[in-house]
Design a protein that fits this description.
Lipoprotein, alpha+beta, 22% helix, 232 residues, 12-stranded mixed β-sheet
Amino acid sequence: MAANRKLLAVAVVCAAAVIGVTGCSSDGGDKDPFEGMSADKIASKASKASKDAGSYRMKGRMKQKGEESDIEFAVAESGDCKGTMGSPKMGRAEFLSVGKFTYSKGDDKFWESKGGSSTAELLKGRWVKTPAEGDKAVCNPDDMFSNKNLKKLKRKDDAEVDGKKAAVLTRKKGGETTTFYVAMEGKPYFLKVVNKGTEAGTVSFSDYGKTVDVKAPPAKDVVDPDKLSSGS
């Protein structure tokens, strides 16, 4: 069942697609820490600060092909990560990325949508272990906070995100409008990204630099993916 190999990657890629982002501190108070900077420069600083934090948490909801999915991840400084994603139609699944392997465990509806009732019965309460794609970590901050697409932005009026003052940057491309919220106090981390258009969604970021513990599941709870194709 080759589709399982990319489940975690798909979840992370979906989030990266929605936010569109594939060293410094502010003085606080009412002073604008980005005074005189272009919107592109502010985004570049946010990209670097967020990536340099090493660890973070993200939570959001996105819509693709008419289906809304919730997603939540915690990423460790090592690049290991854990999270959940799901929707009423596809069911819900947990994901782990540890070292060179990824693990996925879904509810009955999730596995039924991937391989039918027999697959759901085989994998009930179990984790599927698959090799990570290539040598790159699935939850790579270089991908999540890449600034290669953060160009031709415009700065709008400042706003607040969970009580934190944020600079608001927007980008329009075709029928898509993406809005980035960048912290104006402390380090200029991305706080939230909202995309409006065909692939609408919102992703919020928090707990930058905080410890995230990710461990592989016990071997007794892991299914050899080769059994999926043999049906044993």
